[in-house]
Design goal:
Layout: E1 6-10, H1 13-22, E2 27-34, E3 37-44, E4 49-55, E5 58-64, H2 70-79, H3 87-91, E6 96-103, E7 106-110, E8 120-124, E9 127-131, H4 134-141, H5 147-152, E10 172-173, E11 178-183, E12 189-192, H6 203-222, E13 227-231, H7 236-250, E14 257-263, H8 272-283, E15 287-291, H9 321-333, E16 338-340, H10 345-349, H11 355-362, H12 364-378, H13 382-390, H14 395-401, E17 404-405, E18 422-423, H15 430-444, H16 454-480, E19 484-486, H17 492-499, H18 503-506, H19 514-519, H20 526-529, H21 538-547, H22 549-554, H23 560-563, H24 569-575, H25 588-601
Parallel strand pairs: 13-14, 13-16, 14-15, 16-19, 17-18
Antiparallel strand pairs: 1-3, 1-9, 2-3, 4-5, 5-6, 6-7, 7-11, 8-9, 8-10, 11-12
Length: about 600
């Protein structure tokens, strides 16, 4: 079914009636918590599968990639004294994306540890409502847009905690790894249910655990589908997923026809196509579509279509919608019902230099050696290495003083603290800038990092950013083709296994993704497994931007961002007369365009 998966939990009968009228094909359940107090669960599935178990005044509902057996859900209820005791059991549900558990008068609602599936909620008087879609929640409640939160979507990168906020006033977002608990008529509260384990495994043990997790997740994602497809991009991440899927299909673990898709970059220095050919020969797929540059739409093509998508927030991923939807439509024409990708691989398997800051306290000599190597690779100045080590900041200090900037040169500062500086584009109005700075200052005192150390915090932040991008792609694909787009590397079991490897063995500038290459040894052709490079697509984006510049300019004649006071339309229109300007060297214009077109989509 084309569309998006929607889940709503509320104790307000009027909200239930409203959402059911909007989606009459959805399913609803009501569970009595106490005298006259009922909780209603509404789910409308598009690409996911709903499993539920309800008895008396207790229930579990799971929205996931495949069916969860009733006995598994019953066992969770029977073995848990209350919803606070379900952390481990719910975490073991492979493929679960959104879970509602009701036991002993309490309601627990959670998404995924990567942030791919989220929880948003609001309180209206004595009633509560929660959903996996902030946009759906805003519709139900008639919520007002928050211009400051919209403005944050134009900067790159957007920082924690704003990545977990919604674009509407009075709607709260739950952090990945936390769940929402509602007990009786009391106000909802959040509790942490997942914390990344300390990195303690050897490379060998961690790689074996990662391999087992990847195989388990891929089997789960293929299990209910007779035909699937996968990216054959030539990159190590997608190649690994494709090899695992092909292995599962050949061994009879799944009865799935597997189709491969490859799109070629225009960049003459991007050799992905050569690696894709080598991989395709080895995997013996049931079929393989190899699309040349001229067969594919370009970046920034068909921008007006973005206003037709139902998305929770603006995302730079939407700028490429014509390319990835075309690729998925080719796969769908071959019968594919689910498409596997390698998203999340960079975030999990390329160890960030930020971990050197963590290592400096316990292994200073190793940290120094690694930093000097990274310095040579990235041409960092010696001073830029020393300062973060000698004058460390708390997250609150960093957030107040470093997380936001108007200076584009800060993007070149080594990521040796809590993250990259978020750069405000030059076309953002002074009022909007001041509003963002005020918001950061007021939020900083009550904000805590995602992890105690900069390296782990930065890793989780990047993982959440990746999940946000992929969520947009998945939502667009489900609305245009009905195909389920999945990223096995963003699943909890894979994340836990990958980051459990000891930092010195994960973090090395001398080997490319050592955990992943160890996990997939024997599955990939040697020439692919030993690849030490990664293809870029900057040339493709530049060509698409240049060829669509007229359409991009026209968007600012009646800009919604300008009407909200966020963008100086005249400044941006003048700047776009010089499309080769250095102001467009980073992704700021793409994020601004995505935000403008997202605002227009709200008018439909």
């Amino acid at each position: 079914m084309n569309g998006i998966d929607i889940a709503v939990v509320t104790d307000d009968p009027a909200i239930l009636k409203s959402v059911h009228e909007r989606y009459p094909d959805g399913s609803k359940h009501s569970i009595e918590l106490e005298h006259g107090h009922n909780v209603h669960i509404f789910v409308r599935t598009a690409t996911l599968v709903l499993s539920s178990y309800i008895r008396d005044n207790e229930a579990i509902a799971v929205l996931g990639y495949s069916n969860v057996h009733e006995s598994s859900m019953r066992a969770i209820l029977e073995s848990s004294p209350g919803v606070a005791h379900m952390n481990s059991a719910l975490g073991q549900l492979i493929g679960a994306q959104w879970v509602v558990a009701i036991r002993k008068g309490a309601v627990r609602i959670q998404g995924t540890v990567s942030g791919l599936s989220r929880v948003y909620w609001s309180k209206r008087g004595s009633r509560f409502v929660a959903s996996n879609r902030s946009r759906e929640l805003a519709r139900l409640l008639g919520s007002e847009l928050d211009p400051t939160q919209v403005a944050f979507r134009t900067i790159h990168p957007m920082q924690h905690p704003f990545t977990s906020s919604s674009c509407w006033k009075d709607l709260e977002g739950v952090l990945p790894g936390e769940y929402l608990e509602v007990t009786g008529r009391s106000s909802p509260r959040t509790e942490r249910w997942w914390t990344p384990a300390t990195s303690y495994r050897s490379l060998e043990d961690g790689a074996n655990e990662t391999a087992a997790a990847l195989f388990s997740v891929v089997r789960n994602q293929l299990s209910d589908h007779s035909a699937a497809s996968c990216d054959i991009s030539g990159g190590l991440d997608s190649s690994s997923i494709a090899a695992i899927a092909a292995n599962a299909a050949k061994s009879g673990e799944t009865h799935t026809v597997l189709h491969g898709t490859t799109s070629v970059s225009r960049d003459e220095f991007n050799s992905d196509a050569d690696w894709a050919i080598e991989l395709s020969k080895s995997l013996k797929l049931d079929s393989h579509s190899f699309l040349s540059w001229n067969d594919m739409p370009k970046e920034y093509d068909d921008l007006d279509a973005l206003a037709s998508y139902d998305l929770d927030e603006p995302s730079i991923a939407s700028i490429s919608h014509s390319r990835f939807t075309h690729l998925i439509n080719v796969a769908r024409s071959k019968g594919s019902q689910v498409h596997l990708t390698g998203f999340g691989g960079d975030e999990l398997f390329i160890g960030s230099p930020t971990f050197c800051v963590d290592l400096f306290k316990t292994q200073p000599l190793l940290s120094a050696r690694l930093l000097l190597t990274y310095r040579a690779m990235y041409r960092w100045t010696f001073r830029s290495l020393v300062r973060p080590l000698t004058t460390p900041m708390s997250y609150q200090q960093w957030m107040r003083t470093k997380s936001l900037s108007t200076d584009r040169s800060t993007l070149r500062i080594p990521p040796l603290s809590w993250g990259f500086h978020g750069v405000i584009p030059p076309w953002i109005t002074r009022d909007a800038r001041h509003s963002m700075y005020d918001h950061v200052r007021s939020a900083s005192s009550a904000t805590f990092p995602l992890a105690p150390t900069p390296g782990r915090h930065f890793e989780l932040e990047n993982l959440y950013q990746c999940a946000r991008l992929f969520r947009t792609m998945s939502d667009i694909v489900s609305q245009t083709s009905g195909v389920l787009l999945v990223a096995p590397m963003l699943e909890q079991a894979v994340v836990e296994a990958a980051i459990s490897v000891r930092t010195p063995e994960r973090l090395t500038p001398h080997k490319y993704k050592p955990v992943l290459t160890h996990a997939t040894r024997g599955l990939l052709p040697a020439v692919v497994a030993e690849r030490q490079t990664k293809g870029g697509e900057d040339t493709d984006a530049a060509i698409g931007f240049s060829e669509n510049i007229s359409a991009i300019r026209e968007l600012w004649d009646e800009s919604r961002l300008a009407s909200l006071g966020i963008v100086d339309g005249d400044y941006l229109s003048n700047a776009l007369r010089r499309p080769d300007s250095a102001e467009f060297d980073d992704c700021a214009i793409a994020k601004t365009l995505a935000t403008e077109l997202w605002l227009r989509s709200l008018e439909k």
